[in-house]
Amino acid sequence: MNQVEGLVIREAAGEDFIQIRPLIVKRAEELKLSDGSVSDINKLVRDYCSKPAKFYCLVCELDTKVIGYVIYTYGYCVYVGRSVNMDEIYVISDYREAAQLLLFKRMVKITNNLGYRKLGWLSSKNNLEMHEFWVKHGTTVHSEDQGYLQYRLDKSTIQERHCPGSN
Predict the structure, then answer these.
(1) CB neighbours (10 Å) of residue 159?
(2) What is the pTM of this model?
(3) CB neighbours (10 Å) of residue 114?
(4) Which of 54, 121, 118, 122 is nearest to 83 (CA)?
(5) Alpha-carbon dihedral angle through residues 142, 157, 130, 23, given to the nearest 10 degrees
(6) Span 19-43, mean pLDDT?
(7) Whole-angstrom distance, CA of residue 120 vs CA of residue 72
(8) Which residue among 13, 24, 42, 53 is buried most deeply as judged by most CB within 10 Å?
């Protein structure tokens, strides 16, 4: 993995969406989605800053420039219990390898620290780069539906592989 000095992972602030939204649009373009489907900055900030928040967001920055983000929510399943759902993770290509791993590790840490039972997310079946990344870091494909793979890290895998000694 390429190490990049100076990468910082932190909770987003409302003003960060000025930098985050263009990254969301770029991601939508890569997925061949309409940029019209991306919420405007005002809606993103309103939903993020609402009480309770509609979603949560971490950013990865380098020299105060946001180069990546992860958007997540909390969920509950009567069969599994509480969980964290990663709705979107994106890092610009120049820093993807290093920054994506830092964002992912932070999400695993958040899930573990809360004592939640799983971390889950969807990824396009056609995105082989991401599939290799997820599998390399111990995730399992839980299911497949309409061109998407549902990935999952359960509590035991988080504690054994990513956060040993935390159980």
Answers:
(1) 15
(2) 0.89
(3) 12
(4) 118
(5) 100
(6) 85
(7) 10
(8) 24
